[in-house]
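Batch job 17 of 40 flagged for manual review because the log was empty.
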Amino acid sequence: MKPKYFLILLSLVAFSCLKQDDLKLKNLTINGFAPDWALPITNTTLTLRNVVQHANVGNTLTVDSTGLYSIHYDGRLLTASAADYIKIPDQNFNTNGIPLSSPISSPSYFLTVSDTFADKFTYTDTTGAQLNHLNIKSGMLQMQVQSTFQQNISAQIVFPSIKKSGNALSINVVLNYPTTSFNQNIDLSGYNIDFTTGTPAYNNLPYKIIYSIVGIGNPITTTDNISANINLTNLQFSFADGYLGHHTIPISKDTIAIEIFNNTLNANIFLENPIIKLSVDNSFGLSAVGTFSTFEGITKNGTINNIGGNFFNNPIVLNGPTAVGTTVVNNYQIDKTNSNVQNVFNPAPNRVVFQGNIDIGSGTPVYNFITDTSKLIVNAEAILPAWFKIIDFSLQDTLKMAFPKDTDILTKVQFKMLCENAFGLYASVQLYFTDSTYKILDSLIAPPNGSNIIAEAPVNANGVVDGSKIQESVFDMDKTRYHKLAPNVRYGLLRGNLKTSSTISIQIHSKDYLRVQLAARFLLNIKHLNN
């Protein structure tokens, strides 16, 4: 390639990396830099908002009245519907054999006799529920009647506390001997059950059997009887009240991602006052308590931050509404004044793992109610104010790079870096040159210098920045080094390590920034242009 083409190629490489504003003449130089051929590489003003937006995550960055940044992460821990966790178990009732109240014995019976029998079934539930009322959304009553009488039977079975549109459930039974068995299924959708008749005033299901024996000449004995077997199956409620039993709703193990720290090579950040807010919407007509068996932060390198000590005021009382169709919102704030929440977030994690339970109906039975639309919704918000006690934070950015291979007219390359630091953190900066596989080939700042150190901005007694530091640096690359590097360079890794040397907490505000300008100057041997 002839030397004049070097300039053409150099121009193409430059223009492929530039934005329109970079082509303005005033942007091609840094004050005091008079290049033979100078190209801007980057001109960046970095704030905490830039970092959060670059992370491309669903978090929110807020600024309080003082300008202090806080990063917010929202997560849904649980959505629990009453119908999914509070079940009405199938019930099986049996009357046993019911003889005539005045037994009859005859070898040949032709008369008609009527009788009545009344009793109650008892609802049973392994959760210890004591039901008062149940409005049935769907379900079946399966009834089977058996008779040992060798006569015709006409019966009516009435459930006075199972009603629909004000009418009690009544089932007519006809058994014409030799038929001795009767079966019927009743759709209970829309029926309401009142379990309060009797003592105690819950779990009672009274019934009455009114029947007639019509003799047809067959024998009748004192042991003859009728019996009924009743099954209530697949009951789904639209409303239930009373004491609804003891239930445990699991908060399954899950993770809230703190993505802002995913872009770091390493992070050793201790947050001064992390805050967790819990919001629990409860439309169950009952109170509950919540506990967390696991709530821990895990850093990118696998360090686990355990809770330790009292956390979340364990357990958390979740109050419920007193009227159907309403919701009680329970709000809790957990911070360093009332918990060990700092143990979860220090050092700063990139994910928080949680697991727990919500306990309903423990302790002394009390009146509750639920509907099929009742829900428990648990939301958590982590608020991380940018207020650091100790920080060791590494960031990295990737730049596309391509150097011209024809170096006949090149004498050396200079890189010029201008940094203005308005963070209360000092930084060491290094640019690595890599091949297409990101293998590091060389670094801009060669040993023994190691990297460029930029002093932190001054801060006041509260750790708030009240000035800035400016530093200008020039780094040379000779022709031999360039010859070896240029054919293989495809990317640059710009890496910065941020640290605080202060013993006080450092706050990051909306006005804080780090401005970095980097340009390359190609020094040419002009005599070669005439060849």
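Reviewer: the log was empty due to a logging misconfiguration, but the result itself is present. Helices lie at 3-16, 48-55, 82-85, 342-345, 479-485. Unflagging and moving on to job 18.
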